[in-house]
Design a protein that fits this description.
With about 280 residues, this protein is an alpha/beta fold. It has two domains: about 5-70, no CATH class; about 90-275, 3-Layer(aba) Sandwich (Rossmann fold), CATH 3.40.50.150. The chain has eleven helices and nine strands. The strands form two sheets. It has a seven-stranded mixed sheet, with helices on both faces. Strands 1-2 form a two-stranded antiparallel ribbon. Helix 8 links the parallel strand 4 and strand 5 (about 165). It is an enzyme of class 2 (transferase). Its EC number is 2.1.1.297. Belongs to the protein N5-glutamine methyltransferase family. PrmC subfamily.
Length: about 280
């Protein structure tokens, strides 16, 4: 049994590393492929291949990082989202499948040749997915972080997606810009002091993209209050939020005068996205 990282030595075979691992099978497979620059098929067809000393050292280092809790996506530098590969680093959140719901809802409400804004784009997952799928759309993405925008810009280029990126503290860089048909956002919505911030992958992700350092609703309030001048009449505002925040977000939208206010469930049946329409 390979029960310590030090046991990953030159001469061990791919088959042995897959049979006996300190990690979950999927994590182990992903890291093996990354360390050896192999695809999944090669792990099967080359199962009796023995690792060189350099390969064993590389793989052991990756395993050690994962055992310490570092997310797989940061270790390999990539995560798939909406069927596309996205570069990720500690400058951005790791895109999650739940957020694909936000992309789908935005796409459904975006008219032909429409304009869409992604607020707090991070890796660019939302904006790039929209631009890649809807070639006719005019897509703009904002983020306050220059490091995040650099990652997002590379993701747009790598996925042949046309996106305008702006460094902006929420709406500040949009003065004079034409209004949008849809504004979508996955803002920081974890309340300050929430225990989840100290657990799992969240420990490694940029804290400013996770929490508003307040009650979890302050960024959502800013987005809701500031959206009207930047939305076309009957335009949609769509926001991802926490699993217990849907009622509060609906109330905020209704109090601000939005219509058709509703929430949509993710694959787990949790109300994950809430939105409303701007009155004419």
């Amino acid at each position: 049994m390979i029960d310590t990282v030090h046991a990953i030595q030159a001469g061990v075979t791919l088959a042995a590393l897959q049979r006996q691992s300190l990690l979950e099978a999927l994590d182990n497979r992903v890291l093996l492929c990354h360390a050896l620059e192999l695809n999944r098929i090669a792990l099967i067809t080359q199962s009796e291949r023995a690792l060189s000393a350099g390969e064993a050292q590389r793989f052991a280092a990756l395993v050690q990082r994962r055992l310490a809790g570092e997310p797989i996506a940061y270790i390999v530098g990539q995560r798939e989202f909406f069927g596309l590969p996205f570069e990720v680093s500690s400058a951005v959140l790791i895109p999650r499948p739940d957020t694909e719901l936000l992309v789908e809802l935005a796409m459904d409400r975006l008219p032909a040749q429409g304009r869409v804004l992604d607020m707090g784009t991070g890796s660019g997952a939302i904006a790039v997915s929209l631009a890649h799928t809807r070639k006719d759309a005019d897509v703009t993405a904002l983020d306050v972080s220059a490091d995040a925008l650099a990652v997002a810009s590379r993701n747009a280029s790598n996925n042949n997606a046309r996106v305008t990126f702006l460094q902006s503290d929420w709406y500040s860089a949009l003065q004079g810009a034409a209004p949008f048909d849809v504004i979508a956002s996955n803002p920081p919505y974890i309340a300050s002091g929430d225990r989840h911030l100290a657990e799992g992958d969240l420990r490694y992700e940029p804290v400013g993209a996770l929490t508003d350092h307040a009650d979890g609703l302050s960024a959502l309030r800013i987005i809701i209050a500031g959206a009207p001048p930047h939305l076309k009449p009957q335009g949609w505002l769509l926001m991802e939020h926490g699993y217990e925040q849907s009622a509060a977000v609906r109330a905020l939208l209704s109090d601000a005068g939005y219509t058709e206010v509703q929430s949509w469930c993710d694959l787990a049946g949790i109300e994950r996205v809430t939105g409303g329409r701007l009155t004419a």
